[in-house]
Amino acid sequence: MSAEANYLLLSPEHKYPRCFCTEEEIIMAKRIREFVDKEVLPNRQNLEGGWHRDEELAHKTLFELYYKCHQLGLTISNLPSEYGGLALSPIVRYMINEELSRGDVGLATLVGKTHWIVSFMYNRVQVREDLLEEFAPKLTGNVPYISCVNISEPEGGANIEDPALELRTLNTVIVKKEGDFWVLNGHKIWPGPAGDPSYWDKWHEKWPDKFAGHLGYWVVVTEDPSRGEDAAGMVYHPYNAEGVKFGLPYKKCGFCWTDENVEIWYENVKVPAKYRVDVKPGNGAKIIHGYVIGAGRLAAAARLTGIATACLEIALEWTKNRQIAGKPVRERSYFASILADMYRMVDLARQYYLSVTWQLMHPEIYGELWEPHMTAKFSTARSFAGEAAMFCANKAMELMGSYGYVFEMDLEKYYRDFKIVQMWLGGAQRDRLDIAQGLYGPFKWAGYEEWLKARWPKKFANPTNIIEKEIDKTLNRASGSEREAERIRKELNKDKEYDIDEAMKG
Ligand SMILES: Cc1cc2nc3c(=O)[nH]c(=O)nc-3n(C[C@H](O)[C@H](O)[C@H](O)COP(=O)(O)OP(=O)(O)OC[C@H]3O[C@@H](n4cnc5c(N)ncnc54)[C@H](O)[C@@H]3O)c2cc1C
Q1: What is the 26 CA–ligand 1 centroid distance (Å)?
Q2: Is 86 left (phi over 0), alpha (psi -120 to 50) or beta?
Q3: Whole-prediction pTM value?
Q4: Does CATH number 1.20.140.10 belong to domain 286-440?
Q5: 112 CB under 6 A from ligand 1?
Q6: Parallel, antiparallel, or unpaired for β 327-328 and 323-324?
Q7: Which pLDDT tens digits describe the chain residue by residue (506 residues)?
Q8: Best residue for ligand 1 mutational test, from 430, 431, 445 (most atoms within 8 Å of Cβ)
Q9: Is 118 a pocket residue for ligand 1 (Cβ < 6 Å)?
């Protein structure tokens, strides 16, 4: 059975409306769809290593398909043209995610990671020309690299993504300046694709014309968790940096080989100063909220829509061919109404994520993507698309009976894959809470102030310290550099001590 069926309502011309995209962008979506039909759909189970999860088959298939995506320009769609990229719009970025996920969401995620890291270096907060110049030759080379973004930590990934906690739980990776280096210590969990350098060298040596290797890790860090958003940031380190230790890949429900997730330990890892991506206090938080989390959730919305579409297509084909008393089952009302419900969910998920993407492209009207009301929209897009994917995978399986459950029908793969896309970057519940924050926030969770006082008693034990915290924030923003802020802070402290001494004398 094939899922390559042509349904007018599911064709790029009809699903990507002209209010959000140009004719050229729709043609691009058609080309990607053709690529997926021809190359990805027949190989979607091989990306998992087939029925036996064969490691070599999975990697061979993955690197060949990733290479083809790269040849099509999909990996460099958002890289600015001055660095050799295609400089295509965010609409195309998310169409790529949707169309590839219709074939395999692991492949889409790998391609999406490259968009993701480019967005950390080139965005509305800052542009890191030096880093783009350094990485662009690798990103645009003939053979592609893969990359990874490290966010989650043992104390809870979802807490890092919670705006109400102000990035203060981000405490497993701490950085301190030492000469021309930052020194990294800490512990991340779940980043992917990640692993010991020798693992990636092995695949590169086996297929050097398809896979260039691992480009490295973009790591969400903090200088001092007690300082919250002002101290949060991001550093890059190469895949084989000294002092980095990797665990073995987790065994999991889906994404078996397409996204190998491991634990990472940092022990006094020296990172050259230029690899601190954010350049001034506050920029790191904007990049994390806007480009890591916000744009990441929007990509997840597009991927979930692609998964939901694949499930709908499989169900449409199956119910066309399965008959009851001489009639295709899809012409019977029970089946028809469920298929119609699936279409409703899929198309609404798509129209909404496209609308939010269009809004993201017009910050002069809608605001910046790191602002809470935009986070709410990204979270609405992801959570709704998650429900669309869940509904379609579940209902398609029910309509197909036991056949939906078997390996050969491919549906079980989407059934396993959608769940984590709904949950990563903060969990399915996080989306709801961020929507509430954007709708009527900001607000702090009950117990937050007590937690601050218990964790950093010197800093938060009394109201004076809360005022100092606010002064700190203003200083960091207004002074332009850490060093200048520190200088002014010292002057203020001296004045304060002098005043106290004088008062004591009196
Ligand atoms: C295949 C896969 C790929 C991944 N890729 C990456 C990656 O590339 N990089 C990376 O950094 N991480 C990655 N992750 C990790 C993933 O993003 C996290 O697991 C996820 O964000 C949730 O964090 P957690 O598992 O620590 O759950 P927790 O933080 O423990 O959350 C568990 C549940 O509690 C809810 N919750 C948490 N806090 C609150 C609260 N304050 N109020 C109400 N509810 C709350 C959450 O919504 C969630 O439902 C990946 C995971 C998988 C499985």
Answers
A1: 34
A2: alpha
A3: 0.91
A4: yes
A5: no
A6: antiparallel
A7: 444 468 999 999 999 999 999 999 999 999 999 999 999 999 999 999 999 999 999 999 999 999 999 999 999 999 999 999 999 999 999 999 999 999 999 999 999 999 999 999 999 999 999 999 999 999 999 999 999 999 999 987 788 889 899 999 987 565 777 789 999 999 999 999 999 999 999 999 999 999 999 999 999 999 999 999 999 999 999 999 999 999 999 999 999 999 999 999 999 999 999 999 999 999 999 999 999 999 999 999 999 999 999 999 999 999 999 999 999 999 999 999 999 999 999 999 999 999 999 999 999 999 999 999 999 999 999 999 999 999 999 999 999 999 999 999 999 999 999 999 999 998 889 999 999 999 998 888 899 999 999 999 988 987 566 666 677 777 777 777 767 777 777 777 777 666 666 666 65
A8: 430
A9: no
Which two tokens mark 222? Answer: 């903090």
For residue 51, count CB atoms less than 10 angstroms from its CB and return exposed for 0-12, middle for 13-18, buried for 19 or more.
exposed
Give the span between the Cα atoms of 171 and 165, in whole angstroms. 12
- Please name the residue whose Cα sits nearest to atom 53 of ligand 1: 420
CA-155 nearest atom, ligand 1: 26
36 lines ligand 1 (CB under 6 A): no
Ligand 1: does its nearest atom lie under 6 Å from the Cβ of 299?
no
Q: Is the C-beta atom of 261 inside 6 A of ligand 1?
A: yes
Which residue's structure tokens are 């990697």?
A: 59
Q: Under a CB-based contact definition with an 8 Å cutoff, are residues 89 and 115 in contact?
A: no
- How many Å lie between the centroid of ligand 1 and the Cα of residue 158? 5
Centre of ligand 1 from the C-alpha of residue 483, in Å: 35
Query: For the purposes of burial, counting CB atoms within 10 Å of the CB of 451, is it exposed (0-12), middle (13-18) or buried (19 or more)?
Result: middle
User: Cβ(262) to ligand 1 under 6 A?
Assistant: no
Give 423 Cα–ligand 1 centroid separation in angstroms.
Answer: 6
Protein residue with its CA nearest to atom 46 in ligand 1 = 427
- Extended strands (E) in 69-212: 145-150, 174-178, 181-188
Token look-up 């380190």 returns 237
Q: Answer yes or no: are the C-beta atoms of 38 and 103 closer than 8 Å.
A: no
Measured in Å, residue 418 CA sits from the centre of ligand 1 at 15
d(CA 55, CA 61): 10
CA dihedral of 35, 38, 40, 41, whole degrees rounded to 10: 130
DSSP 8-state symbol, 276: B
Q: Measured in angstroms, how far is the CA atom of residue 72 from the centroid of ligand 1?
A: 32
Q: Where are the domains of the chain?
A: 286-440, 462-505
d(CA 151, CA 280): 20
